[in-house]
Amino acid sequence: xxxxxxVYIYEIPYNxxxxxxxxxxxxxxxxxxxxxxxxxxxxxxxxxxxxxxxSLPTSENTLWSHHTPGDQIKLTISRSREESEINWTFxxxxxxEILDRIYASTFLLLPYLFWLAGTLTLITIRPRDLRWxxxxxxxxNTAISVITGYISAWNVRAxxxxxxxxxxxxxxxxxxxxx
Length: 179
Fold this sequence. Notes:
The structure is a single chain. With 179 residues, the chain is of the alpha+beta class. The protein has helices at residues 2-11, 52-55, 95-104, 109-124, 130-151, 159-177; strands at residues 17-19, 25-28, 43-47, 50-51, 72-79, 82-89. A hairpin with a 2-residue loop joins β3 and β4 (50-51). α4 runs antiparallel to α5 (130-151).
């Protein structure tokens, strides 16, 4: 779990803005007054000539993973129903974006609470029978499912595959625990 937290904070690229899965720019972290800058609410249409939908993370690629700070990318956006092109320089991670990611990661406390519950179950609950094993495994499984589900949107380190595996394992554990 700590590994997934480190991946979330350090490995997912900092691109200077946040975009949701519909292509809407939700936050812009570069505040320099440029003539053609991104604004919150812009709709991302194309990235380097490829449609945004085709650029979404899959099992083969990760959004922004092949860009490094200083790279120029051409973004086609829609603002007020007018399309325009912006040459965006991939920035170095800045303090505002790093702090935003750390503050947003308070959701990452939830898996640690499930991990703690699993550990406390492992140590304190008696009798140690099948139900004890299933409850402990379900807590640990839920912790891994939540944290890999959180980073699976970027598809880093096969997190989608791990998430789906543990999600379905959790269904089987819960079913057996309640049987």
